[in-house]
Write a structure and sequence with these properties.
Elements: E1 2-4, H1 12-21, E2 26-30, H2 38-41, E3 45-48, H3 54-61, E4 66-69, H4 80-98, E5 102-108, H5 121-133, E6 138-144, E7 146-147, H6 155-161, E8 163-166, E9 174-177, H7 179-191, E10 198-202, E11 208-209, H8 211-222, E12 227-230, H9 233-242, H10 247-261, H11 280-293
Parallel strand pairs: 1-2, 1-4, 2-3, 4-5, 5-6, 6-10, 7-9, 8-12
Antiparallel strand pairs: 9-11
Helix pairs in contact: 1-7, 3-4, 4-5, 6-11, 8-11, 9-10
Length: 294
């Protein structure tokens, strides 16, 4: 039995589709099961509730061989580190009590870079990894850079002004990855019930691109001019607070972006094992273009 958290999320829904297609027994933890497609609900075991709830994960992990773990963001959390650790602690207890064999979790790049101690969300993710690993469970942490799919949050700006923004320097080259590739890597690991030990598994995509290069690719694929605008880091904090983020979350995102601008995502060398297939150009043609033109 494979247990999936966040089965309706950007990564989780694609992961569930992959596992169901492989005819593997799947159990999902869903706060709102009605958000699952009816076809999926008919093929999986559903435990209703939050995977931060000790009683929920205790039921869900009973008889489980493997678990996919992801802590969903909480825009208004008063403490990002507490959010990751307190959310994960009941799962660690259930992993131990039920003898779960393997955990695959969504984490972040940065361990050993020298930047991870003050990198906001990344720092919290790595502390979460340490908590899980302390149980002794066999573990694979999927460590990723920025997601290509995050660009979908800027579709309105691309439509209206022909621009997108970030706080990164325009000429800084860094990896990105597509969520569909993350889901594919996670599925492959979860379907393999033989691996042991604890290690990170980078998911880096096929190339490093700067935001200026991404703008050129988007312009070419969309058939219209798209430019990159670098946002001041203080502007990011101000915008997040204006949209209702807690001060803790705003600071955690700002710290993460500062670390990325100093090369956090560039510390992991790309290898054949860490290279996933979807290029940014492919993603733009297959995902971004329909969203912009739709």
């Amino acid at each position: 039995m494979i247990v999936i958290t966040t089965p309706t999320g950007d990564i989780g829904h694609q992961l569930v589709e992959n596992l169901v297609a492989a005819e593997e027994p799947v159990r999902v933890i869903a706060r709102d099961p009605s958000r699952l497609p009816a076809r999926i609900r008919a093929q999986v075991d559903v435990v209703e509730g939050s995977h931060s709830d000790a009683e929920v994960v205790d039921r869900a992990f009973d008889g489980a061989d493997s678990v996919f773990w992801l802590v969903p963001p909480d825009f208004r959390t008063p403490s990002v580190s507490a959010r990751y650790l307190e959310f994960t602690r009941p799962a660690c207890e259930a992993v131990t009590s039920h003898g779960v064999g393997r955990v695959v979790a969504v984490s972040a790049l940065g361990r050993g870079s020298g930047l991870e101690a003050n990198a906001g969300l990344v720092t919290a993710s790595l502390a979460m990894e340490d908590l899980i690993c302390a149980t002794g469970v066999s573990y694979r942490g999927l460590t990723m850079p920025g997601f290509m799919d995050n660009m979908l949050r800027q579709v309105d700006g691309i439509k209206a002004t022909g621009s997108f923004s970030s706080t990164l320097a325009g000429d800084l080259k860094a990896p990105t990855c597509a969520t569909r590739d993350i889901a594919a890597v996670a599925a492959r690991m979860l379907l393999d019930h033989s691996w042991t030990g604890q290690q990170s598994t980078p998911v880096l995509g096929p190339e490093d691109l700067s935001c200026n290069q991404m703008a050129e690719i988007m312009s070419d694929v969309l058939g219209r001019a798209v430019r990159y605008q670098q946002q001041p880091i203080d502007g990011l904090r101000t915008d997040m607070l204006a949209r209702g983020a807690s001060e803790a979350m705003a600071n955690a995102v700002v710290e993460m972006m500062v670390a990325k601008d100093h090369g956090l995502d560039n510390a992991e060398p790309r290898t054949p094992e860490s290279t996933t297939p979807t290029s940014f150009r492919q993603w733009c043609a297959q995902v971004l273009k329909p969203a912009v033109l739709g």
